[in-house]
């Protein structure tokens, strides 16, 4: 039994430091956002084998605190770019659940008109600006978006989510360099979940602190506990404030764990690339139970309130699936639309 | 002067008749298009390795940084993929970048961002994202450039939906097509042949556009159609002159744009001549030559009186020395010989 990548954070104790800065309603809102993502992901997972969603999926179960904490620091006009692992980013940024599920069911009213699939969830009304299913692909795009904001004198900032393996792509280094050179209003948010598909960090990178990579470009680089939604929020706020005030980019590394396989439903730890015990250890610091425990201990949440929340979410999710399944599929002419802009 | 400019400088082109309008060099025409675009549209910016250096991208960017400032005309890190992505991201967010390359080969490092990102977002985002960017490159031979500094990449890009590719052959077109490319709401590659940069031509002042996707007749004839773009069609026109002295009347079509392709003009001419020579600055296999050959077979088969003939590069990497280059690159004589061959069929 080996735990290659142990959790090194403070667990529930880590909330104390930040809790005073937020109202009870705000804290409950954050919890609800995380719970909503979790329940949506679970329902997607539960139905996946029915083969109605003919799209690859990359679940974020276990990684809800990063999306929710980060997006809570952003306004609607701030832009978020992301990778293949989009569900949490999209929902936390305020993306429309119905449009997401329609997309995943390949319906014409999907958020990308059924031509994007689950790896390409966008909702421009709320700043979910774009994604790339090519590892690293969205990173320079986000830098370009930040450059445009800077050139136009707009005050929004851009956040790009990247995985640990993305830091190995040359284009990610190129983007850090350019962002630092131009002092772009950009936040590199790296979810370090230690695995690229089934390859551990150790077979891909020398043993070094990921922050040193970003810091070598003279970019402030910080680490934050990725299971602590309040810590993530706080660190992102600092980075966003820096970016908005012309202080340039920040690199945030958030160690976190995905409880499921890289893609598809269920966990695949039993295939042997990581020890089941490692997942179980991280499940003991599940970002949801950690935070709900904290809220309950503080008297901000109880069984009854949780039940009310669960009931409302279940209804919302059931409705959205129902709508998706009843939505029209594209016709042949739709295929030929939007190859070129007018 | 860059070490391989000597050959380009030694080229001699016919001087245009000033009676027909203002005469300008090819390089000035490109610079004028960039200047006008920067003047008229605050969203336009110009970036590229060395765009502000003394060589000024063959002179096409000379003085632009002084005139428009280093926010809008700037040098960049040697990060081809990254900067292609930055350009796309800026374009997706309301800007109009013109990203310049002094060699096409360097764009190969950026295919991921060009092919898999810039060309795809409009489609993937269901029409909600436009990517109005220009990828400009000086292309073509220069002695010694060899296998890694003079590759023709437009053939590789022909099959990429979402991209447009223009390849001007005159100063007039260079200006008008570049302006059209900058105004276009899609990623447009503008490939300018180094050998054409010494050419003078009549270039009107001010803004005008040459439409993307439309070819033009450079010469009328009834015996054979020579079709191509860029420097290849310059040679095609020279070949047509040679043929005229032998009594063969060649029709010369300058495609101006290779994607989207003006199929109608090719088929119209083929209907008249029944004979087709396709010329290109790139490899014959799988590129423009092959595509037009296929067009003739698919849609002009009944008009063909002889096999389609391709004149481009053999399936061999570009040699670096002039000793081998002479066998590698087609010239007007070779195009004329190809035309003669099928006219006699
Ligand atoms: C350029 C490229 N190489 C390989 C892949 C296949 N691939 C898809 S996701 C992935 C792992 C990415 O790991 P990471 O960036 O750490 O993100 P995570 O999946 O852990 O969220 C790989 C290798 C790809 N999509 N793009």
Describe the protein.
The complex is a heterodimer of chains A (342) and B (345). Chain A is α/β, with parallel strands linked by helices. Chain A has a single domain (21-326), classed as Thiamin diphosphate (ThDP)-binding fold, Pyr/PP domains (Rossmann fold), CATH 3.40.50.970. Chain A contains 13 helices and eight strands. Chain A has helices at residues 16-19, 24-48, 64-71, 87-92, 97-104, 138-152, 170-182, 210-215, 229-244, 276-283, 287-297, 303-326, 332-335, and strands at 79-82, 128-131, 158-163, 186-192, 195-196, 199-200, 221-223, 250-255. Chain A has a six-stranded parallel beta sheet with strand order 2-1-3-4-8-7, with helices on both faces. Chain A has a two-stranded antiparallel ribbon with strand order 5-6. In chain A, α2 packs across α3 (64-71) and α5 (97-104) crosses α12. The longest helix of chain A is centred in the N-terminal third of the chain and has 25 residues, at 24-48. The mean pLDDT of chain A is 97. Chain B contains 14 helices and 14 strands. Chain B is of the alpha/beta class and 345 residues long. Chain B has two domains: 10-202, Rossmann fold, CATH 3.40.50.970; 216-343, Rossmann fold (3-Layer(aba) Sandwich), CATH 3.40.50.920. In chain B, α10 links the parallel β10 (224-228) and β11. The termini of chain B are far apart. Chain B has helices at 5-9, 26-40, 64-68, 80-92, 111-118, 121-124, 146-149, 154-157, 171-183, 230-244, 263-273, 288-299, 322-328, 332-343, and strands at 23-25, 44-48, 73-74, 96-101, 134-139, 164-166, 188-193, 200-202, 216-219, 224-228, 250-254, 257-259, 276-283, 309-313. Chain A binds chain B through residues 79, 81, 111-113, 115-116, 120, 122, 124, 129-130, 132, 134, 137, 139-149, 151-152, 170-171, 174-175, 177-178, 181, 337-342, and chain B through 45, 71, 76-77, 79, 81-95, 112-113, 116-117, 121-132, 161-162, 164, 185-186. The site of thiamine diphosphate has 14 residues of chain A, from β5. Residues 84-85, 133-135, 163-166, 193, 195-197, 262 of chain A line the site of thiamine diphosphate.
């Amino acid at each position: 039994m080996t735990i290659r990548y142990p959790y090194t954070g403070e667990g529930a104790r880590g909330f104390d430091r930040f809790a005073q800065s937020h109202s009870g309603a705000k804290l409950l809102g954050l919890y609800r956002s995380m719970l909503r993502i979790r329940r949506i992901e679970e329902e997607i997972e539960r139905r996946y084998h029915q083969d109605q969603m003919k799209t690859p999926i990359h679940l974020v179960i276990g990684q809800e605190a990063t999306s929710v904490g980060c997006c809570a620091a952003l306004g609607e006009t701030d832009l978020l770019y992301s990778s293949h692992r989009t569900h949490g980013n999209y929902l936390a940024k305020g993306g429309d659940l119905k449009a997401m599920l329609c997309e995943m069911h390949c319906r014409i009213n999907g958020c990308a008109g059924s031509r994007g699939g689950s790896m390409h969830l966008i909702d421009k009304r709320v700043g979910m600006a774009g994604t790339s299913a090519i590892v690293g692909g969205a990173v320079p795009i986000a830098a370009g978006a930040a450059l445009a904001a800077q050139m136009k004198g707009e005050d929004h900032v851009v956040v790009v989510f990247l995985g640990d393996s993305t830091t190995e792509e040359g284009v990610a280094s190129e983007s850090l360099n350019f962002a630092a050179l131009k002092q772009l209003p950009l936040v590199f948010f790296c979810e370090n979940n230690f695995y690229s598909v089934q390859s551990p960090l150790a077979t891909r990178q020398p043993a070094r602190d990921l922050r040193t990579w970003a810091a070598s470009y003279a970019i402030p680089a910080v680490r934050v506990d990725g299971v602590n939604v309040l810590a993530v929020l706080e660190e992102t706020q600092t980075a966003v404030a820096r970016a908005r005030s012309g202080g340039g980019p920040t690199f945030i590394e958030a160690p976190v764990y995905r409880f499921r396989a890289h893609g598809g439903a269920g966990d695949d730890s039993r295939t042997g690339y990581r020890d089941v015990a490692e997942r179980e250890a991280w499940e003991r610091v599940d970002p949801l139970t950690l935070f709900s425990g904290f809220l309950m201990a503080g008297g901000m949440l109880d069984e009854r309130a949780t039940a009310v929340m669960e009931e409302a979410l279940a209804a919302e999710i059931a409705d959205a699936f129902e709508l998706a399944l009843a939505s029209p599929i594209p016709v042949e002419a739709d295929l030929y639309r939007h190859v070129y802009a007018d | 002067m860059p070490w391989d400019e000597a050959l380009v400088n030694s080229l001699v082109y016919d001087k245009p008749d000033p009676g027909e309008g203002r005469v300008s060099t090819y390089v000035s025409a490109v610079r004028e298009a960039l200047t006008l675009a920067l003047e008229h549209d605050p969203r336009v910016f110009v970036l590229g390795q060395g765009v502000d250096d003394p060589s000024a991208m063959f002179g096409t960017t000379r003085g632009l940084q002084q005139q428009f400032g280093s926010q809008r005309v700037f040098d960049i890190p040697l990060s081809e993929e990254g900067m292609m992505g930055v350009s796309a991201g800026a374009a997706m967010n309301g800007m109009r970048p013109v990203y310049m390359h002094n060699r096409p080969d360097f764009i190969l490092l950026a295919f991921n961002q060009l092919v898999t990102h810039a060309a795809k977002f409009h489609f993937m985002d269901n029409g909600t994202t436009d990517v109005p960017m220009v990828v400009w490159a000086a292309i073509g031979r220069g002695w010694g450039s060899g296998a890694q500094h003079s590759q023709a990449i437009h053939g590789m890009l022909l099959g990429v939906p979402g991209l447009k590719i223009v390849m001007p052959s005159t100063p007039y077109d260079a200006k008008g097509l570049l302006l059209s490319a900058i105004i276009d709401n899609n990623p447009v590659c503008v490939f300018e042949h180094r050998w054409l940069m010494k050419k003078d031509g009549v270039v009107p002042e001010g803004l005008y556009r040459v439409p993307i996707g439309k070819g033009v007749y450079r010469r009328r004839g009834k015996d054979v159609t020579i079709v191509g773009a860029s420097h290849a069609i310059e040679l095609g026109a020279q070949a047509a002159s040679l043929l005229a002295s032998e009594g063969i009347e060649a029709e010369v079509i300058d495609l101006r744009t290779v994607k989207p392709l003006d199929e109608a003009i090719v088929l119209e001419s083929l209907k008249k001549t029944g004979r087709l020579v396709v010329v290109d600055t790139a490899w014959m296999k799988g590129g423009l030559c092959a595509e037009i050959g296929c067009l003739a077979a698919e849609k002009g088969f009944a008009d063909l009186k002889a096999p389609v003939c391709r004149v481009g590069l053999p399936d061999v990497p570009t040699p670096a020395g002039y000793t081998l280059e002479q066998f590698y690159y087609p010239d007007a004589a070779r195009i004329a010989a190809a035309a003669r061959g099928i006219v006699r069929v």
